[in-house]
């Protein structure tokens, strides 16, 4: 990376699973970051939930366009509603697809304007108890709708205190 070679930073990374949860904070960020950060601010990577993207598409568009949100790390987890419900994810397949379509549209617009398109870092959970082959195929079908993305697969781990962890 540029940082390891002594060069300037090229991206800001927010490791905050609740980045898109506070609209008031994000509006302040949107109003201040491009104006106050050197050079209008670096592109940034942030985690987000599909349900919040579906709830606030106008804010997501503005954060991409004006504050340089370049990499959307979305906890999609599965393309199967049954599996999302087993996980107690509290999101829907429809919200996942809305988030994907939003970032796809932002990317298409960026390309038409000669800008770098955003990417989706798609977090996918595998081996969920109760997941059947048709659920895995639904997830692969969902991933195929992402125009510019990086799939990130992880295996289910039954963490104590989680609904599935307690069941197991």
Question: Which SSEs are present, and which pair or pack?
Answer:
Blueprint: E1 12-14, H1 23-36, E2 44-48, H2 50-55, H3 57-67, E3 69-77, H4 81-86, H5 93-112, E4 119-126, H6 133-144, E5 149-155, H7 163-167
Parallel strand pairs: 1-2, 2-3, 3-4, 4-5
Description:
By secondary structure, this protein is α/β, with parallel strands linked by helices. It is 44% helix and 19% strand. The chain has seven helices and five strands. It has a five-stranded parallel β-sheet. The longest helix is centred in the middle third of the chain and has 20 residues, at 93-112. It is globular, with a radius of gyration of 17 Å. The protein starts with 11 loop residues before the first strand and ends with a helix.
Biggest sheet record: 5 strands, parallel
- Number of H/I helices: 7
- Rg for CA atoms: 17 Å
Q: Unreliable segments (pLDDT under 50, ≥5 consecutive)?
A: none
Q: Tell me the helix content.
A: 40-55%
The 3D shape can be described as globular
Strand order of the largest sheet: 1-2-3-4-5
Distance between the termini: 41 Å
Summarize the structure.
By secondary structure, the chain is α/β, with parallel strands linked by helices.
Fill in the keyword field for this structure.
alpha/beta; 5-stranded parallel β-sheet; 7 helices
């Amino acid at each position: 990376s540029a940082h390891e070679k002594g060069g300037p930073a090229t991206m800001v990374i927010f490791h905050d699973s609740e980045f898109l949860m506070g609209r008031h904070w994000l509006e302040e960020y949107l109003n201040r970051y491009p104006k106050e950060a050197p050079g209008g601010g670096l592109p940034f990577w942030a985690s987000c939930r599909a349900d919040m993207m579906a709830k606030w598409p106008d804010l997501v568009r503005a954060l991409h366009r004006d504050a340089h949100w370049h990499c959307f790390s979305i906890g999609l987890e599965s393309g199967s509603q049954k599996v999302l419900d087993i996980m107690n994810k509290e999101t829907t397949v429809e919200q996942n697809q809305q988030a994907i379509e939003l970032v796809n549209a932002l990317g298409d617009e960026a390309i038409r304007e000669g800008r770098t398109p955003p990417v989706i870092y798609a977090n996918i959970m595998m081996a969920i108890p109760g997941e059947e082959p048709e659920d895995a195929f639904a997830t692969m079908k969902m991933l195929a709708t992402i125009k510019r993305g990086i799939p990130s697969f992880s295996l289910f781990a039954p963490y104590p205190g989680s609904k599935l962890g307690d069941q197991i």
